[in-house]
Amino acid sequence: MSLVSRLNKLTSIRNAIILTQRNARLISTSPKKSDTATISTTEKVTQPLSGAKTENKNWVSWGWDYTSEKTDRDYMNSSFFFSVTLCLIFGSFYLAYTPDNLLRDWSQREAFLELRRREAAGLEPISSDYVDPALIELPSEEDLGDTEIII
């Protein structure tokens, strides 16, 4: 008896018992007067012949062919194969393994060669003049006259 009283004091066991009592379903098998649904056993069930093709009434077309389920499914499978497998998978591999299409490697190599050439010639690595000033011919003051110069 003391064991039963100790078990009753444990809250976890008490909660488990209460939950199992709440979730119990009461099923009554007695006929009810308020039931209105009846099953007619007099209907004749027609079975298709063994060689006849049955049409799936729950078929929803993918939009390729509205008359034939097999053709519609075949077109859908082939279109998904070509779009997903060929375009996405092989296309991403192609883009991942193409050479440098923005020529970043080429421009970096050219900059390195130009820097080495300027160092060997004893020039500055980057010149402040874009064009050599000795090559530029400016007009004289007499040629300019009263022309306003805006810089």
Blueprint (SSEs and pairs):
Layout: H1 2-9, H2 11-22, H3 69-97, H4 104-121, H5 141-144
Kindly list the characteristics that best describe this protein:
5 helices; 151 residues
The counted number of beta strands is: 0
Order of helices and strands: HHHHH
Which range does the strand content fall in?
A: under 5%
In terms of structural class, how would the helical and strand content be classed?
A: mainly alpha
- Largest sheet at a glance? none
| Count of helical regions | 5
Task: Work out the helicity level.
Answer: 40-55%
Low-confidence stretches: none
Give the end-to-end Cα distance, rounded to a whole number of Å. 109 Å
Q: What integer value in Å does the Rg equal?
A: 45 Å
Shape: elongated
The average pLDDT is 80
Molecular structure report:
The radius of gyration is 45 Å and the shape is elongated. The model has no long low-confidence stretch (mean pLDDT 80). It starts with a helix and ends in a 7-residue tail after the last helix. By secondary structure, the protein is mainly α. It has helices spanning 2-9, 11-22, 69-97, 104-121, 141-144.
Question: What would you say about this model in short?
Answer:
With 151 residues, the protein is mostly helical.
